[in-house]
Amino acid sequence: MTMKEYLLRYVGKQKHLILLSLVSVFVFLLANLSLPKLVGLSLDAIGSIVDGRFLLAIDFPLLTIYLSVGLVLAVLGVIFDFIFEYTIGIMTQRIVKEIRDDVFAKICAVPIKSIDERKHGDLLQLEIQDVENIANGLFSVFKQLVQGVLSILITIVLMFTVNWILALGIIVLSPLSLFVSKFVASFSHRHFKSQSALMSDLNALSLESISNLETLKALQYEERSHQDFCARDEKLREEGRIAQFSASWTNPTTRFVNNTIYCVIGIAGIVMILYTASYPILGMTMGNLTSFLSYTNEYTKPFNEISSVAAEFETAQFSFRRIVSFLNGQDDVDEGKESLNGPVEDIVFEDVTFSYEEGQHLIEHFSQEIKKGQKVAIVGPTGAGKTTLINLLMRFYDPVSGLIRFDGIDGRSVPKKDLRGNFGMVLQDTWIFSGTIMENVRYARPGSTDEEVIEACKEAHADNFIRTLPHGYETVVSAKSGLSEGERQLLTIARVMLAKPQVVILDEATSNVDTRTEKLITDAFDKVMEGKTSIVIAHRLSTIREADLILVLKDGNVIEKGNHTELMHRHGFYYDLYTSQFR
């Protein structure tokens, strides 16, 4: 979808509020802009100029009517101005909420690869800063642009009712303001674009530093990190200064042009008053000139106001373009339509080749069958492709060639949601959400009871430490606060215990717990996984001695396989890996 189509989609849903805002602003402007006309009529009702002299001749009944009508219009203007402001505020927030919801939904819908390849700070900017820019831009457009355009149209009509000659003069001169504002805006656009890119880069750096603050301090990297931040922040400040400087010229230059037009109209009006007696077609009185000069200000004011929000409009436009580009990105492809006939039992890798970067194969021609109930361990040096196999198994990525079969069915034919529902994962990196302990564990099975959650925590040997927390299972925790790394990992293990999946994937699942707890958890897993399949990625090879099958990976290929005893007897690569832990 194009930017225009997205804009029409978002704005179209608020058509009732848009209609109400247009009606209210029309009534407000009509009431407000009628006042100069009434002031001019009131002035003419007091007297007139004859032979260069002002003759006082007050028409009290007519003057009273003009003043009374003016008071009523002033009150109406205030009421409908409030309705207009309130309406566009609600409408803007509704539109922005929908955009923000769409951005977050898209973040959840895109492939894992898209998230891996994009700076997380850039995603935060899309979700927060860019949406906020659009909110400011939308409000400015509806407030200044719509109101300004209507104000100009109504003022033109009223100017013609006062004096058609001067009205034509105003229309002829007004394009000067548009030309000046367009020239300045075109210059500032590229600087706002550069400013947004630098802001995204700075957000990414900030997120990276905050997420790894402990490591940053441990390496005594604070000063260098601060210098790096300040250097990038200085670039952002300088680009922002240029962007704001160029945009700031719009309002003063258009105001200068408009003030010049005001002076020209004032002089022309005075000359017309002096010659109206000789040339009645000029039709100029003191009241008419007073009204027209007010309309000249009202006519040029919207040009100034519209140009004053040029910076906000440019920023909002660029942010919206970034969001539209992101929303138009490729969703995670899921063509699966074939259902599995019950829980997953057999898993077969058939000649699987995979690479993250084109031409750089990480796994080549990998074939292996994993049967129901087997405990399969995957070992090998860093970069051998162990975690990549898990990514392929979970269909976070798909093979470049070859396929993975689940109970004889091509994994690409199975809906990802159905496929992943058979798996439970405990990774080396823990994942805790902001919420209570009870809520965190229940993520694995939302419909579970409190008793089931507590039982799962007992199986994971997490119950003891949970009960020592200030509020037990109702203690609020987050990814970086409230729990130690080992305690967070016990909660992720408890999730798997609660879900009771058909296949469990353990990627160094007990790396952050003590040896005694590790033994208890291993025993608990063995109990839960009786008759089911488990796939274990291990660096501490002592933890997988009881595995039914050990696959030894190197450079993406299985170079050895068998159980622990068989591999040790071969005195091969596995033997070297295992014995190196005790040297």
CA-atom Rg in angstroms: 36 Å
Main sheet record: 6 strands, mixed
* Total helical elements: 21
Please indicate the percent range of residues in DSSP E strands (runs of 2 or more). Answer: 5-15%
> Which stretches are poorly predicted, pLDDT < 50 over at least 5 residues?
none
Q: Strand order, biggest sheet? A: 8-11-12-5-13-14
Instruction: Tell me the number of strands.
Output: 14
What is the helical fraction, as a range of percent? 55-70%
Kindly, what is the distance between the CA atoms of the first and last residues, rounded to a whole number of angstroms? 62 Å
The 3D shape can be described as elongated
Sheet/helix structural class: alpha/beta
Give the mean pLDDT: 81
Written account of the structure:
The longest helix has 50 residues, at 60-109. The model has no long low-confidence stretch (mean pLDDT 81). Helix 5 (120-162) runs antiparallel to helix 7 (175-211) and helix 5 (120-162) packs across helix 12. By secondary structure, this protein is an alpha/beta fold. It starts with a helix and ends with a helix. It has helices spanning 3-12, 15-46, 60-109, 112-117, 120-162, 164-173, 175-211, 213-218, 222-248, 250-276, 286-308, 310-327, 386-393, 416-420, 437-442, 450-459, 463-467, 485-499, 515-528, 564-570, 573-580, and strands at residues 47-50, 53-56, 347-354, 363-370, 375-379, 401-406, 409-410, 423-426, 435-436, 476-477, 503-507, 533-537, 549-554, 557-562. A six-stranded mixed β-sheet has the order 8-11-12-5-13-14, sandwiched between helices. A four-stranded antiparallel β-sheet has the order 4-3-6-7, with helices on one face. A two-stranded antiparallel sheet has the order 1-2.
